[in-house]
Amino acid sequence: MYFSKYNIVTKIKNSDNYFILNALSRNADILTPEKADEISRGSYSDIDEYIAKGYLVDEEEEKKLYRKSYLDFIDGRDSSEIQIFFVPQYACNFACSYCYQDEYAWQHLGLNEDIIEAFFRYVNDEFAGRKKYITVFGGEPLLPDKASRMNMAMILDHAGRSNTGIAIVTNGYNLIDYVDMFSSAKARIREIQVTLDGTREVHNRRRALKNGQGTFDRIVQGIDAVLAAGMSINLRMVLDSENIGDLPALASFAVEKGWTGNPLFKTQMGRNYELHHCQANSIRLFDRVSLYEEIYNLMLAHPQIKEFHRPAFSVTRFLYDNGELPDPLFDSCPGCKTEWAFDYTGKIYPCTANVGKAGEEVGSFYPEKTLKADIIETWEERDVTSIPECRQCSLQLVCGGGCAAVAKNKTGNIQSPDCRPVDRLLEMGISLYYEKGVM
Predict the structure, then answer these.
(1) How many of the other CB atoms lie within 10 Å of CB of 43?
(2) How many domains does the chain have?
(3) CA 20 to 30 Å from 250, out of 102, 147, 262, 412?
(4) 3-state DSSP helix/strand/coil percent for the chain, to nearest 5?
């Protein structure tokens, strides 16, 4: 018997205790300092329990379990729902301080009915029989001009006719003017994602119109209107050092508005990160650990945050909510597998992180259908079994190899890791969820 190479053992933050977690056997336990010391010395007083939970294993049996779990993962992924992003335009009315699309070149005649029909024809043919939904993305898809409204109406009409659900990602400024269209659409609106980067002053400093005018109040009106119409809002806050301190205030604002008590309201937090050319002013960016350390400390000091958002801290929230770990994660990159991105120029991209970036196309759907099979295959093959650095890493089945777009941007090689410090995140998450009682 040997100590499983998939065991993660580390100290819980601000605690004398430790934890052990094995994503392959799907077991986790809190350890006293004495038990952790036994493990460090290779002396196990609870050897039968450790064997039963997969912390101590026969090497060949573990290899068999790994292979079986990998095949189960592939089977599950091949039958899971596909998210298809569609960009009707890259134009935007905002001048966000951290936009990563601002230097892309988009010379094109613009979206028209022929392109929309070609897109839906491709989706219905290529993904026939698969569960799928379309996320309308940008740029900003909800501009106030007549062409933008006509294009959105056509997208909704085609989605309704093909019985395909629709999600919308918008900056929210013109959302209030589209609520009636969405309410009357035959297509099912799954959710509308809107970004607020803080309360009024902080948000307006980061996400103003191109003329410098603030956007907070009008976005809030749109959120209220969507919820009143019975549609779902996914509120996103993009975090860096400039606005992290406003998280408690935004949480209090959402609570006072009654949003957090509405089952149609949910939240997510995004890390402002070094994608493509941004950020020139990278000093404001957090890495993953430092961001979650800030969130950890804020949640200890401001417990109202939990009413607004319950951070994942890797798999900790899942473990706490479900009483068990999720299935092993052999791949955290959905590109060319369960995610594809299309834009109005007729091009196809692996994912939203690359959509619109010259040279990242993997095919086209208009005016003709083309596919770069060799590049697509490279994306399809990327997982922890194909990335050399992942194969011996104890974190691999929680990390999943990270984001392929970020990895390629850093190294030029898609078969390289975007390492996620899941052990550090677990240290904080287990502290908050299990020992501090914050959650």
Answers:
(1) 9
(2) 2
(3) 102
(4) 40, 15, 45
